[in-house]
Design a protein that fits this description.
The structure holds 2 protein chains of 2 kinds.
Chain A: E1 7-17, E2 22-32, E3 36-40, H1 47-54, E4 62-67, E5 70-71, H2 76-82, E6 83-86, H3 98-109, H4 114-122, H5 138-150, E7 156-160, H6 168-183, E8 187-192, H7 195-201, E9 204-209, E10 212-217, H8 219-226, E11 230-236, E12 243-249, H9 253-265, E13 268-274, H10 278-286
Parallel strand pairs in A: 3-8, 3-9, 6-7, 7-8
Antiparallel strand pairs in A: 1-2, 1-4, 4-5, 9-10, 11-12, 11-13
Chain B: H1 3-19, H2 21-44, E1 49-54, H3 61-66, E2 72-76, H4 80-87, E3 100-103, H5 108-114, E4 119-125, H6 131-148, E5 156-162, H7 170-186, H8 188-203, H9 206-210, H10 217-242, H11 250-274, H12 278-299, H13 301-305, H14 310-315, H15 319-331, H16 337-367
Parallel strand pairs in B: 1-2, 1-3, 4-5
Antiparallel strand pairs in B: 3-4
Classes of the chains: A alpha/beta, B alpha/beta.
Chain lengths: ~290, ~375
C-alpha cells in the first residue's frame, strides 16, 4: 500500500487530442517520492506529450493529474515553482556564459545568486563558469541543463532523453548525476530510448506505445513476467576438446529435457543464467522495437 | 504578469544583445550615421566665424561664446562704439564684416555677483549665423551668467540681429535634414532587434524553457519590449545629440522620438510574432528599412522640390513619413498645431492598429507556445 501523501505524481485517465489524432489515450500512473520512474516507448508513442501535460506546458483534453501536490491545470503557476525540467533539446543561451545562464534563472525564481556556484559544483562545471555555453561539449551542456533544472531545488524533476547524443563517458557522467539527485531525495521521471540506461537507473518503468501504457512495474518484475529465462551452456567436445555454446530456454519442456541430457552426458563445462533484456520485454509486449 | 520576471528577461536580453555581433552592429549603426552626418555638416559649414569683441575686463564669457564655433577669428575692439559702428545702431548695418559682435562691461563678473544686472550687447549677422547657433549663443551667455551669479537671471542681454532672413537659412535646413535622417536611421533599431530576440527564443527552443519557469508568455514579450525600448531611446537621443538635433521645439522632438520608438517596436513585435525564422523576418525587415529612410529623405529640402507631386502623395501612405515631417518641422520651429496634430494622429493611430494586429497574432501563438 502506498500512502497518497507519498505520491509525487498521480495521473488518472489523462488524454490529449490534437487536431487529427489522439496522442495520449487515457494514461493513469503514479510515482512515489524519491523514485526514478522511466517512461519508455518508441518515437511518437506519447512520452513527450505526457511530460508536457504533467509539467503544465499543455492542458490535458480530459483526465486529471497532480504533480508535487499541484493540480497541473488549476495550480499551474505553483507547479512551475515545484518542478524542474530538462528538455530533450539543449535549449541554453549559447552566447551567455554558464554562470549567466544560471543567474538568469535565479532572477526568474528570485533566488540568491550564491546558488549558482552550488549547482555548478554539483555538476562539476565551476571551472568553466565564465565560458560561453557555445564552447561546451554536448555532455557539459547536458549537465548544465540539469544544474539549471535543480537551481530552485524542486522536489520533482522531469528529464526528457537526458543521454541523447552523448558519448559513453558523458552519458555515464549524466547518469551518475541523476543517481546522486535521487539519493538527495529528488523524484525523477525520465524518458529514454536507451533501455539499458532505464534498466540501470529506474526503480519503476512504464512502457508506452500509441498513447497507452502497456505495462508498469519494476524492471525485474517486467523481465520475469514478460521475458524469457534462458541458460547459456558451454560444452566441451569429447573428441577434440573444442568448446561450443548453446542457449536453452528454462520455460520450455524440450529445452529442459535437452539440458538434463547434456548434464547426463557429462560434457557440460559451465552454465550461465541469462535474464531477458528490457528491449526483449518491450518487443514482446508492444510487438515493435522501442526506438 | 510579474514585474520580477519581466525585469529578469529584460536583463538577460540586455546582456545577450551586447554579445550578439549582428545585434551589436544594429546598435552601432545609428551612431555611425550620426557621426557621418556631423562630419558632412562640418564640411558644409567651413566658414570662419568672425567675432568683434569689446572685452576690457577680459571676461571668460568671450572664450565660452567663441568655443561654440570652429573655425573662429576674434577681433578685439578698442571701444564699445567700434562694435556698434560695425553693426550699425540696433543692428541696422547690412554690410557688416563680422558675424557676431559682443560688448561686455569691464567688471562683468563682479557686477553679476553684486546683482546689478550688467548689460551685454550681442549683435548677430543672420546671413552667416544659423538660427540654431543664434539660440545657442544666447543660451550660452545666460547659462554662464547664472553660473557666475545665481540661478535668477542676473544679466540684461540685448540682442540685435542684422540681415534677418525671411526664409530659413540653408545651413539650418541641412542641419535639421541631417537631424531628421539620423533620427529615422536610429528608429530602425527597434524593428531590427525585436524580431530577432523573439524568433531566436522560438528557434533555439528557449521559449519552451521559459514556459516551465514562473515567466508567462506575456512576461517574455514585455521584457523584450522593455529592453529594446531602452536601447532604442538611448541610441536615438545619443544620435540626435551628436548631430545637434535638440533644437527648435525640443519637447515636440522628444515626443516624436518616443512615438517613433513605439512604432518601430510595434513593427518589430509584429514581425517577431508573424515569422518563425530569423531569415524570413530579416528579409522583410530589410525592405522595411526603405520605408524609414525614403520618406525621411522626402520630408526635408528634397520634399520641398517635389511638393504636391505624386511622389510626396505616395510617401504619405507610410506612417514613417509623418515622423520625419513632424520632426523636421519641430526642429525648425515651424510646427503649426494643424500640421502636428495630423502627424501625431497618424502616428498614434498606426501604433494602435499595429499593436492590435500583433496582440491578435501573439494571442494565437501563446495558446500554441508549448508546441513551438
Amino acid at each position: 500500500m502506498t500512502d497518497n501523501n507519498d505520491l509525487m505524481i498521480e495521473a488518472s485517465d489523462l488524454r490529449r487530442v490534437f487536431k487529427s489524432s489522439e496522442a495520449v489515450k487515457g494514461i493513469s500512473l503514479s510515482v512515489r517520492r524519491s523514485e526514478i520512474f522511466g517512461l519508455l516507448g518508441p518515437n511518437g508513442a506519447g512520452k513527450t506529450t505526457t511530460i508536457r501535460m504533467l509539467t503544465g506546458q499543455i492542458e490535458p483534453s480530459s483526465g486529471h493529474a497532480t504533480v508535487a501536490g499541484c493540480d497541473v491545470v488549476r495550480d499551474h503557476q505553483r507547479l512551475k515553482e515545484r518542478i524542474g525540467v530538462v528538455p530533450e533539446e539543449q535549449n541554453l543561451y549559447e552566447r551567455l556564459s554558464a554562470r549567466n545562464n544560471l543567474r538568469f534563472n535565479c532572477w526568474l525564481y528570485n533566488l540568491p545568486e550564491s546558488r549558482v556556484d552550488e549547482v555548478l559544483d554539483l555538476v562539476h562545471l565551476r571551472d568553466r563558469a565564465k565560458d560561453p555555453v557555445r564552447t561546451f561539449s554536448n555532455g557539459m551542456k547536458q549537465r548544465l541543463l540539469i544544474a539549471r533544472a535543480l537551481l530552485h531545488k524542486p522536489p520533482m524533476l522531469f528529464l526528457d532523453e537526458p543521454s541523447r547524443g552523448l558519448d559513453p563517458i558523458a552519458a555515464h557522467e549524466v547518469r551518475a548525476t541523476i543517481e546522486q539527485m535521487s539519493r538527495d531525495g529528488v523524484t525523477i521521471m525520465l524518458t529514454t530510448h536507451l533501455l539499458e540506461e532505464a534498466d540501470q537507473l529506474c526503480q519503476r518503468i512504464a512502457f508506452i506505445n500509441q498513447g497507452s501504457i502497456l505495462a508498469n512495474d519494476t524492471p525485474r518484475n517486467l523481465k520475469f513476467a514478460h521475458g524469457q529465462r534462458t541458460l547459456r551452456v558451454t560444452r566441451c567436445g569429447q573428441e577434440n576438446g573444442s568448446q561450443s555454446e548453446i542457449t536453452l530456454s528454462m520455460d520450455t519442456p524440450a529445452d529442459q529435457a535437452r539440458l538434463a541430457q547434456l548434464l547426463a552426458q557429462g560434457d557440460v563445462q559451465a552454465i550461465h543464467s541469462q535474464e531477458a533484456t528490457l528491449e526483449e520485454v518491450f518487443i514482446e509486449i508492444a510487438g515493435v522495437r522501442p526506438a | 504578469m510579474h514585474l520580477r520576471t519581466i525585469l529578469a528577461i529584460a536583463r538577460k536580453d540586455a546582456i545577450d544583445i551586447l554579445l550578439n555581433r549582428s545585434m551589436l552592429t544594429v546598435l552601432i549603426l545609428p551612431i555611425l550615421f550620426a557621426v557621418l552626418f556631423l562630419f558632412m555638416g562640418n564640411l558644409f559649414s567651413g566658414h570662419t566665424t568672425n567675432i568683434l569683441v569689446y572685452n576690457p575686463g577680459q571676461s571668460a564669457i568671450v572664450r565660452v561664446v567663441s568655443g561654440a564655433f570652429d573655425p573662429v577669428h576674434i577681433t578685439e575692439a578698442n571701444a564699445p562704439a567700434d562694435v556698434t559702428a560695425a553693426f550699425g545702431p540696433n543692428g541696422s548695418r547690412k554690410d557688416a564684416a563680422y558675424d557676431i559682435g559682443l560688448i561686455v562691461p569691464a567688471d562683468f563678473e563682479h557686477a553679476l555677483q553684486a546683482g546689478s544686472h550688467p548689460q551685454v550687447d550681442l549683435y548677430l549677422n543672420d546671413n552667416n549665423v544659423t538660427a540654431q547657433n543664434s539660440t545657442l549663443i544666447q543660451t550660452t551667455i545666460i547659462n554662464y551668467s547664472r553660473q557666475v551669479a545665481s540661478p535668477q537671471l542676473p544679466v540684461a542681454l540685448s540682442t540685435a540681429i542684422i540681415n534677418p532672413s525671411s526664409t530659413t537659412h540653408l545651413e539650418d535646413l541641412i542641419s535639421t535634414f541631417y537631424g531628421t535622417i539620423t533620427l529615422m536611421a536610429s528608429l530602425m533599431v527597434g524593428f531590427s532587434l525585436m524580431p530577432g530576440l523573439l524568433i531566436e527564443e522560438k528557434e533555439k527552443k528557449t521559449l519552451r524553457m521559459l514556459m516551465v519557469t514562473p515567466a508567462s508568455f506575456t512576461d517574455v514579450i514585455l521584457g523584450k519590449l522593455l529592453v529594446v525600448l531602452g536601447y532604442q531611446l538611448l541610441l536615438s537621443l545619443v544620435a540626435l545629440n551628436i548631430v545637434n538635433g535638440f533644437t527648435g521645439q525640443i519637447p515636440l522632438v522628444l515626443l516624436y522620438v518616443l512615438l517613433g520608438s513605439c512604432l518601430s517596436l510595434a513593427i518589430g513585435l509584429l514581425l517577431g510574432g508573424a515569422f518563425q525564422t530569423s531569415s524570413a523576418a530579416g528579409g522583410i525587415g530589410g525592405m522595411l528599412s526603405f520605408i524609414y529612410t525614403i520618406p525621411a529623405i522626402f520630408s526635408g529640402p528634397v520634399g520641398a522640390l517635389f511638393s504636391n507631386s505624386p511622389i510626396i502623395q505616395l510617401m504619405k501612405i507610410f506612417p514613417t513619413y509623418y515622423i520625419a515631417d513632424g520632426v523636421y518641422k519641430a526642429m525648425q520651429n515651424r510646427g503649426t498645431l494643424n500640421d502636428q496634430l495630423l502627424d501625431l494622429g497618424v502616428l498614434v493611430g498606426s501604433i494602435l492598429i499595429l499593436l492590435a494586429l500583433t496582440t491578435w497574432i501573439l494571442r494565437r501563438q501563446s495558446s500554441i507556445v508549448a508546441s513551438i
